[in-house]
Write a structure and sequence with these properties.
Elements: H1 19-32, E1 38-39, H2 54-65, H3 78-90, E2 96-102, H4 104-116, E3 122-127, H5 131-140, E4 143-150, E5 156-157, H6 159-165, E6 170-176, H7 188-201, E7 204-208, E8 233-238, E9 251-256, H8 259-275, H9 287-292, H10 296-317, E10 322-323, E11 332-333, E12 336-337, H11 343-354, E13 356-357, E14 359-360, E15 371-376, H12 381-401
Parallel strand pairs: 1-13, 3-4, 3-6, 6-7, 7-8
Antiparallel strand pairs: 2-9, 4-5, 8-9, 10-12, 11-15, 12-15, 14-15
């Protein structure tokens, strides 16, 4: 007879959380009751009125028909790598040491963190920031060293806070630009300060630019790596957001900076790339058409998002007790709840009472003593209006029953 002792999971899984998906468990329970659900929680444009540009779909279809279904090179097919390099040059990134294509930008991020940081090291990550970083660092047993974004300064990174948190085990600074969940865009001045700190303390900057083509007002996106040719930077991007193909799972990393400083680290990244074989081969044929083909969808996407952003900030700021900094990019807003309670409790009660699904701010990190929630403003305006009206009604009753206003 075998023993019936429980199989014990690895300790490294203990602190893995992913708020964006975790909240769906509750939403699914509520949906079973027959309540109408309004989903403002997942940044997937393709479940709303957006679709992958047809020339990308055609390129994938042709690759499949041409039997491009074997293994690809570990760093990606040459056509995709070359297209990414040309795009990097267009963005002003010149001192490039390596480029690799991965299963979404998230795989590139995980590989680069794995190749850099040992257990007990720490990585500076923005709070608020995308929960993928928390999850990967927890798995690697690397310490997540939160630095705060300043809500009073348009959610810019707080440079003094970063300076105070660098220590002899700090290996990297993560910058998400435009930021998820706040939609903020980092200023050149702030990026130059980050570059100065990275050079001073021998840190790598992980620059996540997955929303770079989704700046909602008329100003260019500046890649941090274009501001200094020597600073060690890995710039992450992909076809999931700007090119409306999140389920295609193709992203990339661009390594730039002083090659003498980066050489051993690049070799370690490539060891992991080879060990996991390759990214999806036929889908890589969408990269060149995405970056160099018809870009007209971007104008339409930005127009829709700009209008939905304006509606979002107006309706949320009209609710007494809620304030919302206007997002400059991506398709997220991070409104603040001026209450003395828990944002996670607020969000769970909101879902149960109204069917409006948002994500609690504590799942992204935030300044202690503040409460927020993240909304995704991808849905059409009629859905957004309905959702925000429900939030306004619910907030009033929530405050009377569960919390006290702090404004």
């Amino acid at each position: 007879m075998g023993s019936n002792h429980k199989i014990i999971p690895a300790e490294r899984t203990r602190d893995i959380r992913y708020a964006v998906r975790d909240i769906v468990v509750l939403a699914n329970e509520v949906a079973k009751s027959g309540k109408e659900m309004l989903y403002l929680n997942i940044g997937d444009p393709n479940i709303f009125d957006f679709e992958t540009p047809p020339h990308m779909v055609e390129a994938i279809h042709k690759a499949l028909l041409d039997n491009r279904n074997g293994y690809a090179p570990a760093s990606g097919i040459q056509e995709a790598v070359d297209a990414v390099e040309r795009e990097a040059h267009r963005k002003g990134i010149d001192n490039i040491n390596d480029i690799f294509v991965t299963t979404g930008a998230s795989e590139a991020i995980e590989i680069c963190l794995s190749a850099l940081a040992d257990e007990g090291d720490n990585v500076l990550t923005p709070a608020p920031g995308y929960p993928l970083y928390q999850a990967v660092l927890a798995k690697l047993q690397v310490i997540e060293n939160d630095y705060y974004l300043n809500e009073d300064n348009g959610w810019q990174p707080d440079i003094d806070d970063i300076k105070s948190k660098i220590n002899d085990r700090t290996r990297a600074i993560v910058l998400i630009n435009p930021n998820n969940p706040t939609g903020s865009v980092c200023t050149n001045e702030t990026m130059l300060e980050l570059i100065k700190l990275a050079k001073q303390h021998n840190l790598v900057i992980f620059c996540d630019e997955i929303y770079d083509k989704l700046i909602l007002d008329d100003k260019p996106h500046v890649s941090l790596a274009s501001l200094d040719k020597d600073v060690p930077v890995i710039t992450f991007n992909g076809i999931s957001k700007s090119y409306l193909g999140p389920g295609l799972r193709i992203g990339w990393g661009i390594v730039s900076g002083d090659n003498a400083v980066m050489k051993d680290y690049i070799a370690a990244i490539n060891k992991i790339l080879r060990a996991r074989l390759c990214a999806n081969h036929p889908i890589q044929f969408a990269v060149k058409p995405a970056l160099e083909g018809d870009q007209s969808h971007l104008k339409t996407v930005r127009e829709k998002l700009r209008s939905r952003r304006d509606l979002t900030t107006k309706m949320l700021n009209d609710i007494p007790g809620i304030s919302c900094v206007k997002p400059e990019g991506a398709f997220y807003a991070f409104p603040r709840l001026h209450i003395d309670g828990s944002d996670e409790h607020f969000v769970k009660e909101l879902i149960k009472a109204t069917g409006v699904v948002v994500v609690h701010g504590s799942g992204f990190g935030q300044v202690p003593g503040t409460q927020h929630f993240r909304v995704v403003f991808l849905p059409p305006e009629d859905i957004l209006k309905k959702a925000y009206a429900s939030i306004a009604d619910f907030f009033k009753s929530y405050v009377s029953q569960h919390a006290r206003l702090t404004v």
